[in-house]
Amino acid sequence: MIxxxxxxxxxxxxxxxxKKSNIDLESIDNLVKLSIESNCQGIVIMGVMGEAHRLTEExxxxxxxxxxxxxxxxxxxxxxxxxxxxxxVSKRIxxxxxxxxxxxxCSPPKMAKTNERILLKFFKEISKDHNLPIVLQDLPQETGVxxxxxxxxxxxxxxxxxxxxxxxxxxxxxxxxxxxxxxxNQIGIFGGLGGAFLIEELMRGAIGTMTGFAYPxxxxxxxxxxxxxxIKDAKSLFFKWLPLIRYENQQGISLSxxxxxxxxxxxxxxxxTRLPTPSIDKKTEKELESLLREFSFNN
Length: 299
Description:
Layout: E1 8-12, H1 25-37, E2 42-45, H2 57-71, E3 77-80, H3 86-98, E4 103-106, H4 116-126, E5 134-138, H5 140-143, H6 149-158, E6 162-167, H7 172-182, E7 188-191, H8 198-204, E8 208-211, H9 216-227, H10 231-248, H11 254-264, H12 282-294
Parallel strand pairs: 1-2, 1-8, 2-3, 3-4, 4-5, 5-6, 6-7, 7-8
Helix pairs in contact: 1-2, 3-4, 6-7, 7-8, 9-10
């Protein structure tokens, strides 16, 4: 049963394309299967790493509808609805709700200079006509918006639909502590950024992570060991895989690397991104292949 309480590892699904740059629904089925069989506690679609900004509105809705039908309430679905106006986001929220979303992921609209008064009005307006819980995405490198712990406390009080934060404003462990010390109401904090600081984030009080690391089962096992208080085993497993997590998380090409790994795993049919999202070069491919062989990750 889907509830308003989520935690753990939520797989950020990339959008797979075929060689003609059309959405590959069969590969989407495989990604959903990977999420469920890896025991992820949720799946996230239409995020930045899902190339949502490269999709038409019709394509967005076709993916949301398809994933919802494939998941069939086995795990919660969080749908990214970020946009640059109240009208765009409100429309996406309605469509996501109609297609079966359980949660919404929304970042602030892009701003040249953070304006907290406008931000508060924006989130109040998009939250008027629905009761879906919102995950507020704190991603200043994309939005230009800096969310202070004090403002996060204020907005979660005044916009009660905001139940969670997807924190991607490094250094994330430090900011987790700051947010938890400043928020008067209960707020769940998820990490992101490829999962590179999962252990440190959990130690600081995060409830999980939302990321698309190409081996989500490793993050799930790490989280499970941590929650069972097997901290040493959690660290041992995580640090074994950290070289690949680190390599995948290269700014600008992380999505292409992730897709190449998923392609090598036989989960998606091509590693293609949709232009102008960059693809990795041949030298990076060779480095990745070497890393996968060295650490026996290609199984």
